[in-house]
Design goal:
- The complex is a heterodimer of chains A (about 140) and B (about 120).
- With about 140 residues, chain A is an alpha/beta fold.
- Chain A contains four helices and five strands.
- Chain A starts with a helix and ends with a strand.
- Chain B is an alpha/beta fold and about 120 residues long.
- Chain B has helices at about 15-30, 60-70, 80-85, 110-115, and strands spanning about 5-10, 35-40, 75-80, 105, 120-124.
- Chain B has a five-stranded parallel sheet, with helices on both faces.
- In chain B, α1 runs parallel beside α2 (about 60-70).
- The chains are: A alpha/beta (about 140), B alpha/beta (about 120).
- At the A-B interface, α1, α2 and β5 of A face α3 and α4 of B.
């Protein structure tokens, strides 16, 4: 991605940049247009610039966190496999909405080993701590 | 006075896009600083020079362009998201450069720069 390399130069010129806390909120089911994929792209780029990134999955977004999805069966690239790379980008704070899971009849389970399961109220209380909230 | 970053995620025919432009103009009128607009997701289609608007409807592309000219606010286009949606800065057949003037070809790195420098980020 040559364009992001250009931006990397810009970033250095503008340093020092303080670390900003980002909440990336996923509200869409996987393969709902490109929302999940482009959310993940943004999260990884932010983290590669050493920003502090937390991921939230709420509403239909919780479907992205479920195991055993077969993207190939609908001719999609399995971007969900890239979730395995999150720890290499130091994205460790992953929050799932327990209420959203329950409403959809899903167990408190996900592809993430150490996700935190919070109520909608708890998520609401947590979000003001973030500098930037991006919703997909 | 605050420094803002604005993220446009919606196509030209979504009313939130007009809201984003109105909001951008109002920020400047109110004495705030707009560091830049970042077009991502379906928002990149706002830069498509081939989009045609019926003559009795608002041409949002022209509106963004005149906003850019008047305010000198950078309009950043995420090129990866844009290429997926049929935009290109290439003239190599069969491609035809169709990114409108006034837009800056950028990547997600610019999203990092904008949002980390801004006091407030607003996404529509």
């Amino acid at each position: 991605m040559s364009s992001s390399q250009n931006s990397a130069t810009n970033l250095q010129e503008m340093s020092p940049i303080t670390v900003t806390r980002y909440a990336i909120i996923n509200t869409s089911a996987p393969f709902d247009r490109l929302k999940g994929k482009e959310s993940l792209d943004a999260a990884l780029i932010l983290a590669s610039y050493e920003m502090d990134v937390s991921l939230f999955f709420i509403g239909n977004g919780v479907y992205q966190t479920q195991a055993n999805q077969q993207a190939e069966s609908i001719a999609h690239k399995d971007y969900l496999a890239t979730f395995k790379a999150l720890e290499f980008y130091d994205i460790e704070d992953i929050y799932l909405c327990q209420d959203s899971l329950t409403e959809r009849g899903l167990a408190t389970d996900s592809v993430f080993d150490d996700a935190q399961y919070l109520s909608a109220e708890q998520i609401k209380a947590l979000l003001p701590q973030f500098d930037v909230v991006l919703t997909f | 006075m605050s420094r803002y970053a604005l993220i446009v995620s919606t196509p030209p025919f979504d009313n939130k896009t007009q809201t984003a432009l109105d909001f951008a103009k109002q920020l400047l009128q109110s004495g705030h600083q707009l560091l830049g607009v970042f077009f991502y997701q379906d928002g990149v289609t706002n830069a498509n020079a081939f989009v045609q608007t019926p003559s009795d409807e608002t041409n949002l592309l022209h509106a963004w362009q005149s906003f850019q000219q008047q305010s000198d606010t950078p309009l950043h286009l995420c090129i990866s998201a844009a290429e997926r949606r049929g935009l290109t800065d290439s003239n190599e057949a069969p491609l035809v450069h169709n990114i409108s003037e006034g837009f800056t070809i950028s990547g997600l790195g610019e999203l990092v720069v904008l949002t980390s420098k801004a006091d407030k980020t607003v996404q529509l």
